[in-house]
Amino acid sequence: MKLDNTTLLKNKCYVDGEWVSGHEGKTFDVTNPYDQSKIIAVADFDAQDTDKAILAAEKAQKEWKKTTAGERSKILRKWFDLMIEHKEELGKILTLEQGKPLPEAIGEIVYGASFVEWFAEEAKRTYGDVIPGHQADKRIVTIKQPVGVVVAITPWNFPNAMITRKVGPALAAGCAIVVKPAKYTPLSALALGVLAEQAGVPKGVFNVITSSRTSEIGKALTESSIVRKLSFTGSTAVGKQLIKACADTVKKVSMELGGNAPFIVFEDADVDKAVEGAIASKYRNAGQTCVCSNRFFVHARVYDEFTSKLKIAVSQLKVGNGMDEGVQIGPLIDQEAVNFVQNIVNDATEKGALIDLGGEVSKENKQLYMPTILSNVQKNMDVYTEEIFGPVIPIFRFETEEEVVEMANDTQYGLAAYFYGRDYQLVWRVAEALEYGMVGINTGMISTTVAPFGGIKESGFGKEGSKYGIDEYLEMKYMCFG
């Protein structure tokens, strides 16, 4: 499928209000994960180019922080309007480079734009306080100010929304920002640069750099003393490295890292609704999301009913090219991802798990992994501990509330959890006992602009979205008047 508006398809980086190549002139190819066809070659920045982007942000920051909240709000609102106006074209770009079905991609565009709209409004609400003085001749005031130059490193699975969720609050707070998108999916980020320019974002305030040299660029961004804040979404392993790298300059950091989400079905649950929630939670983006349900725990009394109904529903899902009509599950991002998922399934079956559905790549395309259901799953299998990041549902059996809560919490991760049940006393007990930053109760979809998104334990820290999200880009200053 061809793009109707090719002005949104850029192959150069957006730095200081200009579209530029790296000083070496190098490029790397962006390919469609469905068939590995080349979409376009984009600029391949190095550390020297990255430093220029940081300096551009530093220069722009000095003026941007002086603008009023109302002025920033108007620009962000215009940017939001442009995203909605071009949602179909942005969705096509996203599907081409990432693979998810086009309706799902357009849904991500709308979801991503909602953060820009939200923080356009929140810009006006960064209130301080007047605190009763501790002495008669003292007056105490607190104000909130922008933290400074921000860097955002974003993943390939949500190449639009993971950017707007960071850039929206950063710009609203008065911060200039440098965005480094994943090498697999830089085109969505560059398209946002086009619209930011049209919306009137001043030059240098929003910069997008693309590169295949992940380690080199990461080092330049984290070691820079100019950068005062780093926001990262990605794996826990990489997040730990970035935290360490930011320590020398004591940057403010926020981390949205890996997950191992439990999905619990209690014996009094509405099984039909639980099946709907399971599919919504698990198979979105072919299972390639950090909040996807990973381990399914089903009470012994409803285990057979849930499994049989789930199998019927999952067998009806259409797998294929994300651009094709009716497709609900697209390709995995690359061959390494396919191999990882297959190894997870192989480990389970070798240890006694049964394949109720799927368990293999599509016969039509090696990047398509068929929706899979595994039963007779045990704790000694990799599906219990690993983040699967693919369309695989392993179903564990449990008998008691205490047992399932213990299993659900038996992980270093703490991002999202889901459960279905009707007993309100059980609902409150389990919701409070689960060691996760977000809990979905009788729903498989929890992501929304208005709620704080973030995890605990090794799933990271910091919140995105909601009224709390802008605080990640602000510093509180206390002023004592004598």
Automatic annotation (TrEMBL):
Active site residues of this protein: 256
Pfam family, one: Aldedh
Family: Belongs to the aldehyde dehydrogenase family.
Keyword check for Oxidoreductase: yes
Gene Ontology molecular function: succinate-semialdehyde dehydrogenase (NAD+) activity
Keywords: Oxidoreductase
Name under which the protein is recorded: NAD-dependent succinate-semialdehyde dehydrogenase
CDD domains: ALDH_F5_SSADH_GabD
Organism: Flammeovirga aprica JL-4
GO biological process, one term: gamma-aminobutyric acid catabolic process
Transmembrane parts of this sequence: none
Aldehyde dehydrogenase domain location: 19-478
Keyword Secreted: no
Gene3D superfamilies with a match to the protein in the record: Aldehyde Dehydrogenase, Chain A, domain 1 (3.40.605.10), Aldehyde Dehydrogenase, Chain A, domain 2 (3.40.309.10)
